[in-house]
């Protein structure tokens, strides 16, 4: 797993879904998605901040995720991956599970296929009207 120790919330993604990790200013494509922007604004850039983790997203597209904080790679025991509480399964679509780290801290496991990109709304077909 690739773990991002964002000051707002720790999050992880399966390493097999990560294509690359680059400095934010080196990512020339669409803007990076800040999955946790609703929690708080991204912290100010620092030595370990402002990288992007590029993952394989919906439709096979590359999706860049804001990574504000140190990044580590570590194995996770299957028993340390817990299902989301039922209340969150309908509202936190980008989060697929909770990971319990060896130090008993928690990390949210993201599902790159469920992350809405800023340009996704532009590509979607308009809903037919009910007239």
Structure description:
This protein is mainly beta and 131 residues long. It has one domain. The chain contains two helices and nine strands, in the order E-E-E-E-E-E-E-H-E-E-H. It has helices at 86-89, 120-123; strands spanning 2-5, 10-13, 18-23, 51-56, 62-67, 71-73, 81-82, 95-100, 106-110. The strands form two sheets. Strands 6-1-2-9-8-7 form a six-stranded mixed beta sheet, with no helix packed on it. The chain has a three-stranded antiparallel beta sheet with strand order 3-4-5, with no helix packed on it. The chain is globular.
Topology overview:
Elements (H helix, E strand, L loop, with lengths): L1 E4 L4 E4 L4 E6 L27 E6 L5 E6 L3 E3 L7 E2 L3 H4 L5 E6 L5 E5 L9 H4 L8
Parallel strand pairs: 2-9
Antiparallel strand pairs: 1-2, 1-6, 3-4, 4-5, 7-8, 8-9
């Amino acid at each position: 797993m690739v773990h991002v120790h964002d000051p707002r919330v720790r999050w992880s993604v399966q390493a097999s879904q990560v294509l690359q990790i680059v400095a934010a200013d080196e990512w020339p494509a669409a803007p990076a998605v800040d999955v946790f922007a609703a929690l708080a604004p991204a912290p100010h850039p620092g030595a370990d901040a402002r990288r992007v983790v590029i993952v394989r997203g919906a439709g096979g597209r590359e999706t860049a995720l804001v990574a504000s904080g140190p990044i580590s790679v570590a194995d996770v025991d299957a028993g340390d991956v817990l299902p989301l509480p039922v209340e969150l399964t309908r509202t936190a679509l980008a989060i697929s599970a909770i990971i319990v780290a060896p130090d008993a801290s928690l990390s949210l496991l993201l599902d790159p296929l469920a992350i809405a990109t800023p340009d996704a709304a532009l590509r979607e077909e308009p809903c037919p009207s009910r007239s």
